[in-house]
Amino acid sequence: MGAAGQGLSDDEVRGIREALSAGRKPKVVFTAAAGQIAGQLGQVVELTDPAVSDEFVVVRFGRDELPFSPADVAVAPRGAGRRPVEPKVEPRVEPAVVEPEFVLDRVPQPRWEEPKVEVVEAKVEAVESKPPARRAVKAAKPKGPAGLTVTLAYAEGEWTVAAQQGGKVLAKPYVLKPAEALRMVALVDVPGVHEAVEQILSAERSEAERQAEKLRAELAEIEARLAELREAS
Q1: How far is it, in rounded angstroms, from Cα 181 to Cα 161?
Q2: Which CATH architecture has domain 10-75?
Q3: Element (H, E) at 171
Q4: pLDDT-based confidence at residue 58 (cuts at 50, 70, 90)
Q5: pTM of the model as a whole
Q6: How many CB atoms lie under 10 A from the CB of residue 57?
Q7: Which residue, among 222, 178, 168, has the nearest Cα to 200 in the 3D structure?
Q8: Which residues form a coiled coil (predicted)?
Q9: Across the beta sheet with 158-165, what order do the strands follow?
């Protein structure tokens, strides 16, 4: 279990992820890195993608659910947050007070006494104003849309394009015309990509020329055979 000043270790993050999968909401205590709320308890309700943000530990604190980094929280000690049992206090019985009876035999003569002046020193301590804590409560960060991935690929003489957003497939791979694919590649200003495309185009041209030469030879042979058949008739 991590100390309150050290935050969550990788093993503790994995343990919290397993607890969330089992339907539990582990308790955590805020560390000194969390600022003014250090020492208070919260509940982990979600772990988002750490690759998107370092603050992927979503903690319910009061009525809010806010993201924190693993350094801001630590696993709460066992039994934290339970209300202690208050000891039973027996009622105190005050003794009865008997007021004395006053009997006036004579009226006492007033005697003048010198008034006493009591000097009371008032001690005023200057209260040093403390700077505000690093942060009291973090502002909730809105979650942005999932990343969009567009893939342009070449295989077996065909160019294809596909699109995916997060885990959702927007467009399955479909065939593009070479001219359209080349316009897309031209937008990528990377010399290595352009060289690879030039090699692909050169190989395709060579193959097309070889097939065209083969077809021309077959056509010439067919025309010669046709000429022979005409002469024989």
Answers
A1: 8
A2: Roll (2.30)
A3: strand 168-176
A4: very high
A5: 0.35
A6: 25
A7: 178
A8: 198-232
A9: 148-155, 158-165, 168-176
Q: Which of 33, 14, 17 is nearest to 25 (CA)?
A: 17
Pick from 139, 196, 137, 145: nearest CA to 168? 145
| Residues 34, 68 contacting (CB under 8 angstroms) | yes
Average pLDDT, the chain: 78
DSSP-based three-state secondary structure for 30: strand
Give the closest residue to 8 by CA, choosing from 30, 38, 36: 30
CB 155 within 8 A of CB 161: no
Judged on CB neighbours under 10 Å (0-12, 13-18, 19+), 92 is exposed
Helices (H), 148-190: 178-186
Euclidean distance between CA atoms 44 and 26, whole angstroms: 6
Query: DSSP E strands: which ranges in 19-147?
Result: 27-30, 41-47, 57-61, 64-68, 73-75
